[in-house]
Records
---
Amino acid sequence: MLAALVLVAPPLAGQATALWGGGLGLGIAQWSAIPGYSEHLTGTGFGAEGGARIGRGLLHLRYLSGALGPAAGNVPARDVVDARVGVGVQALTWLTLEAGPHVRAFSAAGATERWVLWEVRSRVEASLIGPEAIGHAEVWRAFSSTVNLADAIDYVQGGAIGLTFRSLKGPYRLGVDYEIEHAALNDGKRGETWEGLVVRLTIEP
């Protein structure tokens, strides 16, 4: 699908290869719920993000690690690692499409809960205050997913909205995103929700 879009998408200005990257911080909230029981954990994570633009082709990498603790009660604390790789295309000047693997792992007391998702993503962007402020919205859904739990996954999907400020004195961008992702398991009897507030500082040409 992405290869076909590369062929049919209209020509875009600036077809040269460009690299970008930077750091990010994330405030995290996670909920797990089954009938009669629920968990709520919060924490922070830090990581890096970057990629390349090659003509209309896109490569996007993101990695973060952090720690979650109980918001209330005696829920065990856990470490979290979240990483994803996306390969995509800028189909239009305001629309990008992306697909790739996404891995998230929670570790506590010597045990690891590991999610492996293959996702498709779409993102739209628009200038809000000239070229200095750019708003965006993104949605995604896993077309294949596995987890090392007894419960089978019904679906995983999510979305994000954000704002990026571009410096007029250099290749610096400051962005703030709110993202939320929900997974249903075991015919809807179990729900997992991941919520994050992301702050990023990147260098982009």
Note: The mean pLDDT is 91.
---
Amino acid sequence: MTILPQAPTGGVELSFDPIREPWSIYKAKTDGAIIKVRLTVGRIILAGVKEDGSGHLVLGSNLLFSVTSPNKGQPDPSPKTNEQIIAAIVERTVPYDTVKEEWNEYDVEGVVVGLKLVITNIAKTNLFDDIGQPLYYVNWSTVIRPITGPEDRAKLKKIWDERGPKGPEAPKA
């Protein structure tokens, strides 16, 4: 399975229940700030399936962030745009240690799908949130655990065959 960046036309929206959505935790080496990031999924679309049951998933997701730093600043409750945060970056690459990165798991119509949020870069800004915690800008990626079991692939293939688009205009995985 792969994660596509945009929603396809003609995909199949799948029902799912989160099994676990743990925090990924990182510690900035420069100031000891603990940065917690959590991926939450709100939508899973099956965008296509090959004959072997492998295919593509599209996710609708959000990130939750939490920072706890020993270096608090002046609290600023004003909302900030992404552009304002990027413009306020004072340290483009903050060295960090990975404290914890675990797999999120979802029961997607009887198939367990695993996703992992992985931080690729942390940047520090000169901004502070409403309680004085420093704001960081985080780049991240989502990794999906391959669905390799023949029974799980057969379930996805059956869903696609029964509910997916039909005919020559149907998307291919």
Note: The longest helix spans residues 150-163.
---
Amino acid sequence: MPTKLYRFFSLVNTLAKMELKEEASRFVLRYFWWILEPVILIAIYYLVFEYFLRIGAEEFILFLFVGKIPFLWFTKTVLVASGSIAGNKGLINNIDMPKTLFVYVSVHEALYKQWVVFLVMFGVAVFNGRWPGLNWGWLIPLLAVEYGLILFFSMFSALCVSFVPDIRMLIQMGMIFLMFTSGIFWDVENLPPALRDLVLTWNPLAFIVDAFRQVLIHESVYDRFQLLELAALVIVGLLLIHLLMHKMSRTIAAKVVEA
């Protein structure tokens, strides 16, 4: 079993790096786009909310960076990974392999891009006077839980899209909904207590965004018990989705090939 897992993740690592090189080769600026794209997006939001609408919060550029970067990691990865199985129709038609492989490759490709973007976010925090301290260590479990959450929703989305390709359009619209309901442009801490607790309980992205801000902006610690609850749900969800995709492997292959 350990040998199989090692081979599986070695293959994931190799394929993800190949995808990164292929993607970078299409652009003149190559790998620099990993940083430039999110920075441009945040700059646009900053101009609109701070100068045009004049509804920006205090230290709004830091507020946006710390909220938008973790959110972009989730949304971009899930959107790309949702088509990862259906997009490998030719390979699936010729080789019998775990369908989770394609999802893992997409998720890890995004992960390799994201660590550079997170360094930029940390740099913005330092530039705004938030020097690394012991509380920054709480970012490690937070990043691990978000990674698990991304992996679960990526697999679930890829499974659904394999059977009904149109679901990908619904996923795109759902991401827009999440962007405006997860506290990216507004502070969840300003909500009435009852509504705040409701949002943080039922919207895991809102909790994750707020947790990043607690550590990097307010220099405090998020609700660790709530993170533990979320981690438990993510682990159970991942176990179930892996089992489901393993059981449905041939059905998924047949459906993708027929499409």
Note: The mean pLDDT is 90.
